Amino acid sequence: MEKLKIVFMGTPEFAVGILNTICQNKFEVVGVITAADKPAGRGQKVSTSAVKDYAVANNLRLLQPVNLKDEAFIEELQSLNANLFVVVAFRMLPEIVWKMPKLGTFNLHASLLPQYRGAAPINWAIINGEEKTGVTTFFIDDKIDTGAMILQAETPISQNETAGELHDRLMELGCVTVLESLNIIENGNAKPKQQDDSLITKTAYKLNKDNCKIDWDKPGKEIHNHIRGLSPYPASWTILKDDDNEWNIKIYESSFSEEEHEHKIGTVITTKKELTIAVKNGMLSIKVLQLPGKKKMKTHELLNGVQLSQNAIVI
Q1: Which among 11, 75, 111, 118 has the fewest CB atoms less than 10 Å away?
Q2: Residue 85 and residue 100 in contact, taking contact as beta carbons nearer than 8 Å
């Protein structure tokens, strides 16, 4: 048994839960690596990562390299004398970094690898209508999300679960799985299993403006999955057109009802409290949305102040 001396690497809130679990369970964290501070938002106020905030609050040794191959950073990293690196939602590491610790570098990925390798596994699992997902710990190698697996844990995805809700559940599942992985490695019982690339049917490529736009020609269930798979961030969007007015709107919550109708696809039907859109095989009810420059609101709140004509459509 070799006592672990860990360097943790991560950036967003998802990683904070894992780091906190490692610290709370009395593992020694000799250093934390996270993204450099950068200006963000309209005022270009300097933004710090969630992992940095946690590290500072808990007096952990913090490194924020801009270049992971920088000689000064490599020297400082070596000086920490860690025997294991743990990576959660960070960037791709150069070989000189991931090969450094004696016991290896492992990553937590929010999917059941080899499915959904890539940047947005939680979102794409929901967008594609999957009924289950999970987390995987694996030793990093020279490609993205391809290394030998240590442990996996599975969880169902409910019909109307959003990416935000699944994110929180996978963070909890990830905490347990990372903890189990650390205990296995510390006790010398790790038996990593190579991934079978022949099983790959889905990937989790980056989200962008184009693939977040709603395609109204798709079946209603797929549109509903698209909306919940991008909620609350980065959010699905569409163009709402009403006579001479056009708005780019974000849609955060919907429900789908399969039924026959004679409306043109994209037709917007409103009452005093409800906004429904005609889709290929039914009606999509919009529950929460956001107009440009406005706050996110429930549909009935929007309809209190905005009156749409019978010509309103989404495109």
Answers
A1: 75
A2: yes
Q: Are residues 155 and 15 in the same domain?
A: yes
The CATH number of the domain where 20 resides is what? 3.40.50.170
Inform me whether the pLDDT recorded for 76 exceeds 70. yes
Note the pLDDT of residue 2.
83
Angle, CA of 27, 90 and 30, to the nearest 5°: 30
What does the pLDDT look like over 87-104, one tens digit per residue?
999 999 999 999 999 999
Q: How many residues does the chain have?
A: 315
State how far the Cα of 134 lies from the Cα of 111, in Å rounded to an integer: 5
pLDDT band at 160 (very low <50, low <70, confident <90, very high): very high
pLDDT band at 306 (very low <50, low <70, confident <90, very high): confident
Same domain, 103 and 185: yes
State percent of the chain over pLDDT 90: 89
Tell which of 138, 169, 203 closes a domain: 203
Q: For residue 264, what are the domain limits?
A: 209-314
Q: How many folded domains does the chain comprise?
A: 2
Taking the C-alpha atoms of residue 232 and residue 212, their distance in angstroms, rounded to an integer, is 12
What does the angle CA 235 – CA 218 – CA 292 come to, to the nearest 5 degrees? Answer: 30
Burial class of residue 74 in the structure, from the number of CB atoms within 10 Å of its CB (0-12 exposed, 13-18 middle, 19+ buried): middle
Per-residue tokens: 19:
């780091």
Question: Could you tell me if 179 and 146 lie in one domain?
Answer: yes
Residue 232 has pLDDT above 90, yes or no: yes
Co-location of 190 and 217 in the same domain: no
Contact 30, 81 (CB under 8 A): yes
Say whether both 221 and 253 belong to one domain: yes
Q: How far apart are CA 170 and CA 313, in angstroms?
A: 37
Quick one: 140 and 252 in the same domain? Answer: no
Residues 213, 192, single domain; the answer is no
Looking at the fold, whether 178 and 91 belong to one and the same domain comes out as yes
Per-residue pLDDT at 290 exceeds 90: yes
Give the chain's mean pLDDT.
Answer: 94
